[in-house]
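User: tokens in, sequence out, please.
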């Protein structure tokens, strides 16, 4: 059995009530720390063969279009202060996780800051790390790697990072989630024997 995760039920769309054959669904909550703890608990309870996280993300610039779907090949824990040089992490702290499942969508690196970036200046700075921002992936990826469970993530771009992000996200997240699910279904990725 595979496990489809999302931060909250709307990002699972119709899969929340009717998961594809061979999959179960669950929600992690919002933010990397909450997602890590919840994912670790779910892995211990359900013992899935693989985990795929589904979610929405914001773009830092126009390298990706709105409603474009992607496979998160790498999740990087970072912050605006780190990029600006105002903060650093101790050398042994892990900041990068690479997906262990190959996905059916174009691969992209994903930045995972501790909070949503609200400024255009911040978006420009973080664009040097990745094309998109998401809040849960490092937690999900870290928990899966620690448990030895193969993992990956499919995301859809629903907003521009910056001052209008929240309004755009509210207007687009439901449609974006439906488009992401349709894209995955169209590839046959969600079909399990």
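Assistant: Sequence out:
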């Amino acid at each position: 059995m595979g496990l489809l995760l999302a931060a909250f039920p709307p990002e699972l769309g119709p899969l929340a009530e009717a998961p594809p054959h061979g999959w179960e669904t669950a929600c992690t909550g919002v933010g990397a720390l909450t997602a890590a703890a919840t994912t670790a608990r779910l892995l211990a309870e359900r013992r899935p063969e693989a985990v795929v996280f589904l979610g929405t993300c914001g773009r830092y610039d126009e390298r990706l279009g709105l409603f474009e779907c992607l496979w998160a090949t790498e999740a990087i824990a970072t912050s605006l202060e780190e990029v600006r040089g105002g903060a650093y992490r101790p050398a042994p702290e892990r900041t990068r996780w690479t997906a262990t499942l190959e996905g059916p969508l174009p691969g992209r690196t994903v930045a995972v800051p501790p909070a949503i970036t609200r400024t255009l200046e911040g978006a420009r700075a973080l664009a040097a790390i990745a094309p998109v921002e998401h809040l849960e992936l490092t937690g999900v990826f870290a928990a899966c790697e620690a448990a030895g469970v193969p993992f990956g993530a499919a995301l859809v771009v629903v907003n521009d990072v910056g001052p209008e992000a929240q309004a755009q996200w509210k207007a687009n997240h439901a449609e974006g989630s439906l488009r992401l699910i349709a894209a995955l279904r169209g590839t046959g990725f969600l079909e399990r024997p």
